[in-house]
Known about the structure:
six-stranded mixed sheet; alpha+beta; 4 domains; globular; 508 residues; Nucleotidyltransferase, domain 5
Amino acid sequence: MASQDILINWAPQETRVAIVENGAVQELHVERTLERGLVGNVYLGKVVRVLPGMQSAFVDIGLERAAFLHVADLYPQAPGNGSARAAATGRADAPPPPIERQVFEGQTLTVQVIKDAIGSKGARLSTQVSIAGRMLVYLPHDTHIGVSQKIGSPELREQLRARVAALATQGAAGAGAGAPADKPGGFILRTNAEEASDAELAEDIAYLRRAWAAIRERAQTRAPGSLLHQDLSLAERVLRDLVGEATQAIRIDSKMQFEQLKAFGETYMPRAAAKLEHYKGERPIFDLFGIEEEIARALARRVELKSGGYLIIDQTEALTTIDVNTGGFVGARNFDDTIFKTNLEAAGAMARQLRLRNLGGIIIADFIDMTRDEHRQAVLAELRKQLARDRTRSTVSGFTQLGLVEMTRKRTRESLAHMLCEPCPTCAGRGQVKTARSVCYDILREILREARQFAPKEIRIVASAAVVEMLLDEESVHLAGLSEFIGKPISLAAEPVMNPEQYDIVLM
Length: 508
C-alpha cells in the first residue's frame, strides 16, 4: 500500500486539500467559504404558513427566504403528524394525511436542508434527519439497517447488517449513546463500509450518535431559526472520509485551524487526529510540495507522459474524451511495442487525472490502435488496476468495434475545472472565435439589412482593431462598393476593449 500524505492549505476565503502518494498528487479538493451549500444542515424551524392547496408549508430557518417543506418530506412517526397512518388505514404504504393535519402555523420543527435554494425558490426541507459518517448514515428516527446497493454480494450484505446491528446495540447500551433507549436509531451502510473493521464501524456509530445528541440538546435551548448542525467543513471531512491506514501525516498550515481540527478529531475520530501536524514552514505548504504547479497542469488540456507521449482531455457537458498520442516516443524495439508501452503508461496517467480533476459521468478513452489482443487486454487490466485505487466508483467496458474504451465514473462534486474556471467570455466556451474576415462579412450583411429598414444619414462601424484594419485594407473594395450601393457614407472606429466577434453599427 502506497504511503500517503494529506496537505491542507487554509485561508478565510478558501480551503484546499491535496492527497499526495509517493510524491505525486492524486486528489485535489477545494471548498470556498462563500460557496458552501446548506444541504445537510439541520435547523430549528418555525412554520410560518401552511398551504393545503400545494400540500406544503413555508418554514423560517433564519435565511433571507422561507424554506419549503412538502408533505412527502414529513417524517411519518414524528409527534403530531399522523403516526397512526398505517394503523388507521391498515396499509403500510397508505398516503400521508393532509399537511394541514400534521403541521400548524407557529409550530417548531427540527428540519434538514435536502436541496439548496435556487433562484427565487427557497431551500427544500425534510423532517427525516440523516447524519452522514465515513462508513454509515445515521437515521435517528428509524430502526432499519440498510446496505448500499453497490455492495452486491447477498452474503456480505447480511454479514454487514448483522455486525452493525450488534455494534449499534452495544453502543446504545453505553453511556452517552445520544439516542433514547426506545429509539436507538437506524443505519445505512455506505460503500466504504464494505471492508471496514468492527473498530472502524464502532467509531463511526459513536461519532454519529454524539452528533445527534448535540443536535437534540441544542434544539431544547435555542430559538427558532437557529442552526443546530452544520455539515462538516472540508478540513473536517478530511478526517472523516479521507484518512486511512496508508495516511502517514495530515499537515495543515493554520495554527488556529489545527487546534480546532485537533479538538474535533480527538472527540470524534481519535485515530485520525493522532496524525495531525501543524506545518510551520516559511514557504507556503502548496509551494513547498509543488501543488500549485500541479493545479495549473490539472486545468490544461494536454497532459505530458514521461515517455514523451501525451493525453488530450476534453470535458463537455455530456461526456469527457481522452485521446492518447505517442508524441515524441519512438521506442527501442518495434512500433507495436512503442504503442503498447505508451498505452500502458497512459492507462495509469488517465486514472490519476480522473481523480485529480474529479471527472465524472461518461468517459471515452481513445487509446492508440493495438493489433495484438493480449496488448489490449493488458492495457484494460492496467486501467482497472489503477482505477481500483479510486475512492469513487467507476466501471470500465472493453474495447468497442471502433477501438474505444467506454467507462463511467460517479459524479460526487463539481469537477476541478468547473469549480475554478468559467467559460471564456470571448468564445463562450467553444474554444474558437470567428476570423476577422468572417466578422467583416457579418458587418457588411448587417449594414445592408439596416439600410433597407431605416434611412440614416451616415453609418458608423465600431469593432475590434483587427476587424477595422481588415475593412480598411483587404476588404476596403467591398466596403466602398456597399457604401456606393446604399448611397450612404460609412465610417470606422476601433474599440480596443471589444473582443474579436463584437461590433456595433451606429445609425447617424
